[in-house]
Amino acid sequence: MAEASFLRAGGITVRFGGLVAVDDVSLEAGEREIVGLIGPNGAGKTTLFGALVGMEPTTAGRVEIDGHDATGWSAARRARAGIGRTFQRLEVFGSMTVRENLAFAAEARQVAGRPWRLLTSHRHRDDAVAADVLEVLGLGPVAHVVAGRLPLGTGRLVELGRALCARPRLLLLDEPSSGLDPGETAAMADTIAAAVAEVGVGALLIEHDMSMVTQLCERLYVLDFGRLIAEGPAADVLASAAVQAAYLGTATS
């Protein structure tokens, strides 16, 4: 575990009417580490992500960012404090080039919650940030390609790059391997590991592909029906009979 966790969440509960989607979940993640959040479909993982970034209202619990109580903060304020996020569904500007996608993200950070100002002014441009991220992710050869024409694997790198251009201290990655073949998944895992090492950002990762989970994650949290059923070092968690029964599809003895 990182010496000082950048994100701490305690007792997070999210209800939708009578349905408890996330039930008293606590976790933490720090910079320069990769932590996994796994569980079967419908376990509440993406809902928990929404609560952590401020996009989903919580019924109970506390979120701390860099030692500050962020429970009442908006999603925009949490982003400015260093929380970044990607989505399971690819989110890029399809009509813009790769470089333009990254530059827009870098500029949007400069104007905080008023990105529309970028449409009329270039005074917030930060081309150096976009150039650095292009290099880290190996996107230089496609920098001038329109993002909507890229294959899915490269498009996911662009989405990761946009998140990195906001200079987060912790990235919440929602199934970065979704839709990728095994070779692309392995390449994505290598890229995430390189980004953590070179940029110094931490990552909290939702992922179903166990090859990526075992390759990347130092620690794991496991959700089932909204409840935390296991946490700890990745190897220990994956060897747990409860986790194998709930997530990996094997019966307990």
Outline of the structure:
The protein has 253 residues and is an alpha/beta fold.
Give a short account of the largest sheet. Answer: 6 strands, mixed
Beta-strand level of the residues, as a percent range? Answer: 15-25%
- Count the E strands: 10
> Please, what is the CATH homologous superfamily of the largest domain?
P-loop containing nucleotide triphosphate hydrolases
**Broad shape:** globular
Residues in helices, as a percent range: 25-40%
- Spatial order of strands in the largest sheet: 6-7-8-3-9-10
State the end-to-end CA separation: 31 Å
Label the CATH architecture of the largest domain: 3-Layer(aba) Sandwich
Low-confidence sequence ranges? none
Mean pLDDT: 88
- CATH C-level class of the largest domain: Alpha Beta
Order of helices and strands: EEEHEEHEHHHEHEHEEHH
Task: Draw up the topology in text.
Layout: E1 5-16, E2 19-30, E3 34-38, H1 45-53, E4 60-65, E5 68-69, H2 75-80, E6 83-85, H3 98-110, H4 127-137, H5 152-165, E7 170-174, H6 182-199, E8 202-206, H7 210-216, E9 219-224, E10 227-233, H8 234-238, H9 241-248
Parallel strand pairs: 3-8, 3-9, 6-7, 7-8
Antiparallel strand pairs: 1-2, 1-4, 4-5, 9-10
Helix pairs in contact: 3-4, 3-5, 4-5, 6-7
